[in-house]
Design a protein that fits this description.
globular, alpha/beta, six-stranded parallel sheet, single chain
């Protein structure tokens, strides 16, 4: 009876405490110290319960002692893991970009925001976030932007005040990455995984005599969310909006409209590419060959 009734109750209690104390800060992307406190409290209460509520007989006490010993090891392991996550998140940095920004590194406030999108992204480390204010950003002539592994890039912030993440509105505060004589974004075997994110941008005006007018992903799989791929061209090639080569990005809540290419005007996938596409729309894309939308 002890193992049938007591184990589920004491084992799942820490998750109840963790849910009640979960105060993840969306503005700083750091775990609150209350997570660690929650594990400590749940450990203390359930450990105390094992020794205070089970005096039925010696066998029960022995079972309780064995269970509690295992529980100590489990909680210590969870505590070490959680503390490691907390420290890692606490070291993450938010950097800022505005049109015409004149700030210098490390660009850690709106007042010291940089004006060059790519420079600020390059200055970021894995786990960092980049907040980009409303406006239009262009790469150097004939060049493309590039994402960076582990960096989350968010558009949709107002140009006035000191907007926080919760005040972001990517639909109202249009943040545009525009081509400048080439495709807009090139992610060429740069190690991007799903923790590398582009969120809340309009990608437009890309034009190239190669694959991927708006974005080209080669051997990388970032997360693309809340983005619009509008009027990009892969001249006589594949993937006007996005071209994925040996890449499987997650593409969520995105719009593909009025892009053009020979094949796959909205999106083209080749060589073992298997993107996750959720809640996206493809409208008015034109291919001279196959696959107007996809």
């Amino acid at each position: 009876k002890f193992f049938k009734l007591k184990l589920p109750i004491t084992f799942f209690r820490p998750y109840t405490f963790l849910a009640l104390s979960y105060t993840y800060s969306i503005t700083s992307y750091t775990f609150s110290f209350s997570h660690i406190l929650a594990f400590y409290l749940s450990f203390y209460l359930s450990f105390y319960e094992d020794f205070s509520n089970n005096y039925i007989n010696k066998v029960t006490m022995q079972a309780s002692h064995q269970l509690s010993s295992k529980k100590v090891a489990l909680y210590l392991a969870l505590l070490v893991l959680l503390f490691g996550l907390w420290v890692g998140k606490a070291n993450a940095t938010v950097r800022y970009v505005t049109v015409g920004g004149t700030g210098t590194a490390p660009y850690t406030s709106w007042a010291t925001a940089g004006g060059n999108w790519q420079t600020v992204v390059n200055a970021s480390a894995s786990g960092d976030s980049v907040f980009v204010a409303e406006g239009t950003y262009l790469p150097a002539s004939g060049q493309s932007f590039s994402m960076k592994q582990g960096v989350k890039i968010f558009g949709g912030f107002a140009t006035t005040g000191n907007p926080t993440f919760t005040q972001r509105n990517w639909q109202t505060n249009t943040t545009t990455l525009q081509g400048n004589g080439s495709r807009v974004i090139t992610n060429n075997n740069n190690g991007l995984t799903a923790i590398s994110e582009l969120d809340g941008f309009t990608i437009t005006g890309g034009s190239i005599n190669a694959h991927g007018g708006g974005m080209y992903n080669h051997s990388c799989s970032p997360t693309i969310r809340n983005c619009k791929f509008i009027a990009n061209t892969a001249n006589d090639y594949y993937g006007g909006g996005i071209s994925n080569n040996n890449s499987s990005p997650s593409i969520i809540n995105c719009e593909f409209a009025f892009n053009s290419a020979r094949h796959g005007a909205g999106m083209y996938n080749v060589d073992n590419s298997s993107p996750l596409i959720v809640g996206c729309s493809l409208t008015g894309n034109i291919a001279s060959g196959n696959g107007g939308g996809l």
